[in-house]
Amino acid sequence: MTEPRIAVLLPCYNEEAAIAQTVAGFRGALPGATIYVYDNNSRDRTVEVARAAGAVVRTERMQGKGNVVRRMFADIDADIYVMADGDATYDPAAAGAMVARIAEEGLDMIVGTRVHEAAEAYRRGHVLGNRLMTGILSRLFGRSFTDIFSGYRVFSRRFVKSFPVLSSGFEIETEISVHALELKMPVGEAETRYFARLEGSESKLSTYRDGWRILKTIAVLYRIERPMLFFGWIATVFAAIAFGLSIPLVVTWLYTGLVPRFPTAILATGLMILAFLNLFTGLILDTVVRGRREMRRLAYLAVPGPNLPRA
Question: Where does the pLDDT of residue 70 fall: very low under 50, low under 70, confident under 90, or very high at 90 and above?
Answer without folding.
Answer: very high
